[in-house]
Amino acid sequence: MEKSKFVYIGSLVILTVLLVLVFYHPVATEGKYSEVQWVQLLEKGTERIIQFDIINHEQKDINYTIIVTVDEKKYTEDVLIRKGGKFTYIHHIYPERLTEGDVTFVVYKEGESLPIEEVTYCLK
Q1: Cα–Cα–Cα angle for 12, 18, 20, rounded to 5 degrees
Q2: Per the UniProt record, which residue ranges are transmembrane (predicted)?
Q3: Extents of the domains making up the chain
Q4: pLDDT digit string (tens) for 45-70?
């Protein structure tokens, strides 16, 4: 009888621990990363538009470099995004200026050699 009592109490302790783990979810208010969201290739009349947001979830201001390559011609923009801030990037592409039709955009975070986002479109 004494052994079953210990098993019963042990089972209750384990069940309590499991219930606490199931219902206890530490809430992280902010991540510690940067991300690119809402990447869109829009078509308006005769032009195409690349639009995306860069979001800085980190606890410090960060510089980003955006490189858009259209048929091997590079357009570079450096932006500073405040901690917790967002930057919307827009680039217009005119079809009459395209030869091959390859469009690539790459976003780098300051001090990193690997991009946080890289996307290529073939527009022809």
Answers
A1: 100
A2: 6-24
A3: 34-122
A4: 888 999 999 999 988 999 999 999 99
